[in-house]
Design goal:
The structure is a single chain. The protein is mainly β. Strands 2, 4, 5, 6, 9, 10 and 11 form a 7-stranded mixed beta sheet that branches. It has a 4-stranded antiparallel beta sheet with strand order 1-3-8-7, with no helix packed on it. The chain is globular and about 40 Å long.
Length: about 120
């Protein structure tokens, strides 16, 4: 069982930055690939970024490439999402998720555990 707790969301002006963190419980964090997803009002939950167990392989949705960076610290059981050059269309609830296994996934239905979400609002 893995419990995930996100933090770092908030209100920011367009062009600004936020860093989201997701702290995981348990001693087997490095056996899970991790992902960040987001869900805007009235829209489907979508992948934002994903990272494999070691951090050596990453995936980004096209709309955030060059602006967002996913990283992880297995010693601290934490995955991060650094978000720069934020836009109003980045406004959403952001969720982190964990899937057992080494390789990253971008299909939300493959993930085993989810956090409660953290709100990100970008004002224009």
């Amino acid at each position: 069982q893995v419990q995930l707790v996100e933090s770092g969301g908030g209100l920011v002006q367009a062009g600004g930055s936020l860093r989201l963190s997701c702290a995981a419980s348990g001693r087997t964090f490095s056996t899970y690939a991790m992902g960040w997803f987001r869900q805007a009002p009235g829209k489907e939950r979508e992948i934002v970024a994903a990272i494999n167990w070691s951090g050596g392989s990453r995936y980004y949705v096209d709309s955030v490439k060059g602006r967002f960076t996913i990283s992880r610290n297995n010693g601290k059981n934490t995955v991060y999402l650094q978000m720069n050059s934020l836009r109003s269309e980045d406004t959403a609830v952001y969720y982190c998720a964990a899937v057992y296994g080494s390789g990253y996934r971008y299909n939300r239905y493959e993930y085993d555990y989810w956090g409660q979400g953290t709100h990100v609002t970008v004002s224009s």
